[in-house]
Amino acid sequence: MTTPRRVRIATPSEYGAVVDGAPPITAALAPRRRRFSVARLLGSLLIVAGVGLLGWTLLVWQWQDPFTALYTRWEQRGLASEFDRVLKDEASRPPVVPKGAPPTVARTSVRGEARRFRLGLGEGDPIGRLVVPRLGVDMVVVEGTDSGTLKKGPGRHADTYMPGEGRLVYIAGHRTTYSAPFAHIDRLEPGDRVRLEMPYATVVYSVTRRRIVDDQDLSVLRPGTREEVALQACHPRFFATQRYIVWARPVEVRPRGGAPFAPGA
């Protein structure tokens, strides 16, 4: 009878032995395992980054960029203090409109005070307070519309006029950064109120129309023959290829120290 051949089972310590000149099994698998671990880590990081970017986009889309908003909030505090000093200085002057003056005289007086105030301004100076209830905006407006000035708040284009002068008042503002005062400018509807509180008078406007124009369309800066305030923001959001503009016409003027009156034609 033939004796059965004994089969020897290798022990765990022998798994890594070299067979016919081949490298140990564990040594051969190690680089592959390392590559798999690196790929898995990289994939996890990309997923986290993607989720974070999506969350950030939704945050800015719905509200605004919180970091640049901090800068504007700080600047607005300083501008508010400066504007309070301007109001105090203006209050020491005689009333804009003489007591009992007819509307025609009142309009002329406000127009003259508005022009005087405009000619004394410098780039970045606070000029008034813009209040738009529909947008939740209550901010100090600055003189000028360059990139540095608009970081402080909404800015009046220097080639246009002041409230009460009877011509175009053009105000630009950011839509996604630096407190994004005009983030939801497209929500304004005809009849919505826009208020500009100036040192010499407060002018209340009513929204009449809106329009999207090319970013190079300068026709929107033409003053026209009657007073309007134009609020402008970039369009679409996150881009600057177009401009979203909302126009409003004055419905009431409240001169400093005088009775309110209708602006007239």
Description:
The chain is α+β, with helices and mostly antiparallel strands. Helices cover 32% and strands 23% of the residues. The protein has four helices and eight strands. It has an eight-stranded mixed β-barrel with strand order 1-2-3-4-7-8-6-5. The termini are far apart.
SSE arrangement:
Layout: H1 25-62, H2 66-91, H3 103-119, E1 126-132, E2 137-143, H4 147-150, E3 155-156, E4 168-172, E5 193-197, E6 201-214, E7 228-235, E8 242-255
Parallel strand pairs: 2-3, 4-7
Antiparallel strand pairs: 1-2, 1-5, 3-4, 5-6, 6-8, 7-8
Distance between the amino and carboxyl termini: 127 Å
Mind telling me which CATH architecture of the largest domain this is? Beta Barrel
Major sheet attributes = 8 strands, mixed, barrel
SSE pattern, N- to C-terminal: HHHEEHEEEEEE
Q: Write down the overall geometry.
A: elongated
- In the predicted model, the low-confidence regions spanning at least 5 consecutive residues are 14-19, 52-62
> Oligomer, anyone?
single chain
**Beta-strand residue percentage:** 15-25%
Number of strands: 8
Q: How many domains, as an integer?
A: 2
